[in-house]
Design a protein that fits this description.
By secondary structure, the protein is an alpha/beta fold. About 60% of the residues lie in helices and about 10% in strands. Its main location: membrane.
């Protein structure tokens, strides 16, 4: 994705404000040159004691030009900044429009802090593309040419000297600054992104760093990163200062040249002496308009680097992806089929799933079990289109998942992930993510069904549910799924943090509510799977066993061994007192 091309297209949509800002900038520059030229001419003219009406006219003209210059400058600022903010809004919308459909794939391969720096800092930096890169050359060239034409009426040699000064300040000085800028090559932006990533990771892992005694080392690393950013910013500022100083030197050098050349021409009788001050003031004023050219390379390089980082965000992703329009029947349970599916994560040589084929009838209840890393969660992610299979095909109701609209699929699925996200707010707000029309009585009944009767709808939930136990998070996530009306249930370890009694109660609730729907549940615990129509055992990305609970136990294969191991580690012969004690400890 070329962000600058998007920016240029957006500029065409704001062409009215852009043209008005260019007009305002040109008029402000011309009025400034004429204002100071008139002032110089007025000073020179007073030496010859002109008639009073001449002084009145020149003085009035100076005042009118001052007001006109101020008004034009105001209009330039108004229209240029309004256009810039509109352009930035369009760019941000375009960027997010491409980013959202690609999550969580991008989140899996980008550090969250670095991605945040791209979303905020890099997008923001492109706002200067118009104000500091595209806009100044237009104003500088137009005002300079008008001034050169004006000066040529009095002396062609002074006009040529102004042309030489324009070439140096508008092209040579920026080229010198650009040459020194290449040494940095986006160092400031890289260091800023690194600092953002390190800060985010430190805040997210603060407790673990504290517990393992690594907080001081992480703090020092963060300070070193901050120092590196400060050093890079200082170097960048020095380069800009050198460019501005060089521009000022050229400005005064050309102005002195106008003075010397003008004096010579006056001595030779080629120019009237009354015009000398006027041309010197015009020279000094016109070069003020070219001051922005000294910093143009820095902003141009920064914009290019920001655009490059934004483009890198989508490397390997489909750029012009057409949103599929296939829809699932809302009133029908959904069948699921995987045909020779192989899947591997980006930049991972080892496949997570290898030629997996399975078929789940509409309305069936299926459990997927296996050791950690066997690919259980990846099956659910493929069904939700969070990833695309590397090979093979995923079918829902006989339609390829690739042809189904993502939002329609998610809307018709009731999902409980291993780590559901909770937003800062109240329990009510976190339950009403889909349908805000549900009343409090229904929400309180739902909390009671998932064994959270003590929770109030107005209770505060911190970001990521930091003030909730793991068991409470899972039950709240289940309650949120139960409030949806989808016909496909995808559950990833929904009861892993619950005690035995609560787990059985919640599983029974889920099976009751989904009795006519299709349910796929990933679990590493085998208790409660007797009610499933089918159990699929995965190991190292392949299916090793398939059957009902009783069939798999009778075979005494992989599932039987897992069950024996679970009984040894956990045991299923709890006494009633132990079960009641476990229920009190939950959540």
């Amino acid at each position: 994705m070329n962000e600058r091309s998007i920016f240029i297209k957006a500029m065409l949509n704001e062409r009215k404000d852009i043209l008005l800002s260019i007009l305002g900038g040109f008029l402000a520059g011309i009025f400034g040159v004429v204002l100071f030229s008139t002032s110089g001419y007025l000073i020179s003219k007073t030496v010859f004691v002109p008639p009073l009406y001449t002084l009145i006219i020149l003085t009035s003209l100076v005042k009118i030009l001052g007001l006109a210059r101020a008004a034009s400058r105001y209009g330039e600022r108004l229209f240029s900044h309004r256009a810039t903010f509109s352009l930035l809004s369009r760019l941000r919308t375009a960027f997010f429009g491409k980013l959202v459909p690609m999550t969580p794939r991008i989140l899996n391969r980008q550090r969250s802090g670095d991605l945040l720096a791209r979303i905020v800092g890099d997008v923001e930096s492109l706002q200067f593309y118009f104000l500091r890169v595209a806009y100044p050359p237009i104003i500088v060239v137009s005002v300079f040419l008008a001034t050169v034409i004006f000066a040529s009426f009095f002396s062609i040699w002074i006009a040529l000297l102004l042309v030489v000064g324009m070439v140096i300040t508008a092209f040579v000085v920026p080229a010198i600054v650009r040459g020194s800028q290449r040494k940095a090559d986006g160092r400031v932006r890289k260091q800023r992104a690194e600092l953002s990533a390190e800060t985010t990771e430190m805040l997210q892992g603060f407790i673990d760093l504290k517990v393992y005694g690594r907080l001081k080392q992480r703090e020092q690393k963060l300070l070193d990163t901050s120092d590196a950013l400060t050093a890079a910013q200082q170097e960048d500022a020095l380069r800009l200062l050198r460019g501005q100083s060089l521009h000022s030197f050229i400005t005064f050098f050309v102005s002195w040249g106008v003075l010397v050349l003008g004096a010579y021409l006056i001595v030779q009788g080629s120019m009237a002496g009354v015009f000398l001050a006027m041309l010197i003031m015009a020279s000094m004023t016109v070069f003020d308009e070219s001051a922005a050219m000294a910093t143009l390379p820095a902003y141009k390089r920064d914009s290019e680097f920001a655009a490059k980082r934004l483009a890198e965000t989508f490397d390997g992703e489909e750029q012009e992806k057409v949103e599929p329009s296939g829809m699932l029947d809302r009133g029908q349970a959904i069948s699921v089929e995987l045909q020779n599916v192989t899947f591997r994560y980006a930049e991972d040589w080892r496949p997570v799933l290898s030629e997996v084929s399975l078929k789940l009838d509409a309305g069936s209840k299926t459990a997927i079990v296996g050791p950690s890393g066997s690919g259980k969660t990846s099956v659910l992610e493929l069904l939700l289109k969070l990833h695309d299979p590397t090979q093979g095909q995923v079918l829902l109701n006989g339609m390829s998942a690739a042809d189904l609209n993502d939002e329609d699929l998610w809307r018709k699925s009731n999902v409980v992930l291993q780590e559901g996200h909770f937003f800062r707010g109240t329990i009510r707000e976190n339950l009403l993510l889909e349908d805000e029309s549900r009343d409090d009585r229904e929400l309180r009944a739902m909390l009671k069904q998932v064994d959270l009767p003590s929770k109030k709808l107005d209770d505060l939930v911190l970001e990521k549910g930091e003030n909730l136990s793991d068991g409470e998070k899972q039950r709240l996530a289940i309650a949120r799924a139960l409030l949806k009306s989808g016909r496909l249930w995808l559950l990833d370890e929904p009861t892993s943090s619950l005690d035995y009694v609560t787990e059985r109660r919640v599983l029974n609730l889920l099976l009751e509510r989904s009795k006519d729907d299709t349910l796929v549940m990933v679990s590493h615990r085998l208790a409660g799977l007797e009610q499933m129509d089918q159990i699929i055992v995965l190991d190292r990305g392949t299916i090793v066993e398939t059957g009902t609970y009783d069939d798999l136990l009778e075979r005494k294969g992989y599932f039987y061994e897992m069950k024996q191991l679970e009984q040894q580690m956990v045991g299923e012969d709890f006494t009633d007192r132990e079960r009641e004690s476990g229920a009190r400890r939950s959540g």
